[in-house]
Amino acid sequence: MKSATPAMVALDAASVRYVAHAFDHDVATSSDVGYGKAAAAALGVAEERVFKTLLARADRDFVVAIVPVNTTVSLKALASALGVKRCEMARPEDAQRVTGYVVGGISPFGQKKLLATVIDDSCAAFDTIYVSGGRRGLDLEVAPNDLVTVLR
Q1: What does pTM read for this prediction?
Q2: To the nearest 10°, the Cα dihedral for 51, 55, 57, 62?
Q3: What are phi and psi of 68, to 5 degrees?
Q4: What is residue 36's predicted lDDT score, i.e. its pLDDT?
Q5: 3-state secondary structure labels for all residues of the chain
Q6: What is the pLDDT of residues 10-42, one digit of tens each?
Q7: Where are the domains of the chain?
Q8: Is residue 123 predicted with pLDDT exceeding 80?
């Protein structure tokens, strides 16, 4: 496997156990179905167990939403959870600049700055979930409780 990503470094620093899963990233498939769904298919994992990390803007601040790849984020629900009037999705170039990761490889861990984060409750239904490892073609399998702990 290639060198550790900032996400892996962050988890190591927090003494969090994880399993790194590398897979072949197919640009054509990702473009058709989305990066997260392509990752789930490549890993042979149910889509509801693979979570995508999305960047949104809440008023003037950037925030993170972590949701299963087979769903879309409800911007109304996100705004409500954050106690703001409205949220909108960040532009891809802003997502890359703010997180330090390329779109399709944005990890919730090891971002340039710890942002307010809202995590879909459905993650609690699983012993482990998959999130991006910080580059396309790499997912990290972590316990949902560890996800919450590290991002607080």
Answers
A1: 0.92
A2: 110
A3: -60, 150
A4: 87
A5: CCCCCHHHHHHHHCCCCCEEEECCCCHHHHHHHCHHHHHHHHHCCCHHHEEEEEEEEECCEEEEEEEECCCCCCHHHHHHHHCCCCEEECCHHHHHHHHCCCCCCCCCCCCCCCCCEEECHHHHHCCCEEEECCCCCEEEEECHHHHHHHCC
A6: 999 999 999 999 998 766 555 556 888 889 999
A7: 6-150
A8: yes
Contacts of 23 (CB under 8 A, 6+ apart): 39, 42, 43, 137, 138, 139
The Cα 152–Cα 117 span in angstroms is 8
45-79, pLDDT tens digit by residue? 999 999 999 999 998 899 999 999 999 999 999 99
- Cβ distance 123 to 129 under 8 Å? yes
Q: How many CB atoms lie within 10 A of CB 44?
A: 8
Give the C-alpha separation, 124 to 114, whole Å.
Answer: 22
Q: What does the block give as tokens for 78?
A: 């996100």
Nearest to 100 by CA among 135, 131, 147, 142: 135
Tell me the fold of 6-150. YbaK protein (3.90.960)
